[in-house]
Amino acid sequence: MSENKIIKAIKDKGKTLEAEMSFFDHLEALRWHLVRASVAIVIFTAVVFYYYDWIFDTIIMGPSKSTFWTYRMLCKIGAALHRDGFCIDKVNIKLINTEMAGQFTLQINSALIIGITLGVPYLIWEIWRFIKPALHDAERKAATGFVFYACVLFFLGITFGYFVITPMSINFLSSYTVSTVIQNLFDIDSYISSVATLTLATGVVFQLPILVYILANLGIMTPKFMKETRRYAIVVILVIAAVVTPTPDMLTMTVVSIPLFVLYEVSIVVAGLVEKRKIKKELDFEKGE
Predict the structure, then answer these.
(1) Which of 44, 80, 132, 187 can bridge 118 by disulfide, Cβ–Cβ 3.0-4.6 Å?
(2) What whole-number distance in Å separates Cα of residue 53 and Cα of residue 118?
(3) Of 25-34, 108-117, 278-287, where does mean pLDDT reach its minimum?
């Protein structure tokens, strides 16, 4: 092997080692970001665990009580419109525990779920801190406010899910029967799982504008496509609203549907803004040439 080939091989090996070190450095940085996020979640979980009695009775069990804010508002709406069927005087739900350590694990699991939910903003911020150095200036500028908007949308979704989707779903599912022979007795784990799933799922669904923004930047999603599929989105939204509303009344369905419609339309606007920015960049590039 000639001297030049040996030198080239050494240089190539050095570049490989440098790349590997860089990769492991990134992994180490990511690990510490996740560690800090985990610590924040543990702290939130500990706080929830400490105040668990109030949180369980007021927040977790709230949708199972006829005095819940949503049910009271529905009664007021019904009274204002002079229409029956809005008031939910009683939520027919009977909860049981079937495991010896069920209530203990219930407290731990539900405290952890709430802790994770409260820690989501910090987790998003840590992930953003990890990704940000790898972005170009233009990409950083385009992603300005990402953490803020993602957190706002998440908690708007959580609020909508908890105060609208969850109580209406629980009221519907707890009173639904296929036969009077069957008595509904729900395990507490099933109840907690339903509340958590409906609430968190809505928080995730409210990230739609963020997802559309990313897909639009990648050229996968366009406002034209979203406008063309709007009628299918409307059908899906109406089906969801029909399932979770306690009555077949169109007004109640509308209350549930409107935020979802707005979310879809906002996503179309977001995709349109991204497309306009891309067109402007292309025109500026052509002028520069």
Answers:
(1) 44
(2) 18
(3) 278-287
Helix (H) or strand (E) holding 186: strand 186-187
Residues 6+ apart with CB under 8 A from 218: none
Using a pLDDT cut of 90, give the percent of the chain over it.
33
Residue 67 CA to residue 89 CA, distance in Å, equals 8
The CA distance from 155 to 207, in Å, is 10
CA gap 82, 103 in Å, rounded: 43
The helix/strand/coil state of 88 is coil
Contacts of residue 129, defined as CB under 8 A and 6 or more positions apart, other chains included, come to 33
Q: What is the pLDDT of residues 56-69, one digit of tens each?
A: 999 999 999 988 99
Classify the phi-psi angles of 222: left when phi > 0, otherwise alpha if psi is within -120 to 50, otherwise beta: beta
Per the CB < 8 A criterion, the answer to whether 271 and 226 are in contact is yes
Q: Which residue has the tokens 């799922």?
A: 201
* pTM attached to this predicted model: 0.80
Is the predicted pLDDT of residue 16 greater than 60, yes or no?
A: no
Q: Please tell me what DSSP assigns to residue 10.
A: H
67: number of Cβ within 10 Å:
8
Q: Is residue 17 pLDDT above 50, yes or no?
A: no
Cα gap 173→92, rounded to integer Å: 9
Q: Which residues of 75-107 are buried (b: 16+ CB within 10 A; e: fewer)?
A: eeebeeeeeeebbbeebebeeeeeeeeeeeebb
Q: Is 189 exposed, middle or buried (0-12, 13-18, 19+ CB in 10 A)?
A: middle
pLDDT in tens, 129-158: 888 887 777 767 777 788 899 999 999 999
6 confidence band (pLDDT: 50, 70, 90): low
Q: Given this model, what pLDDT does residue 109 score? A: 94
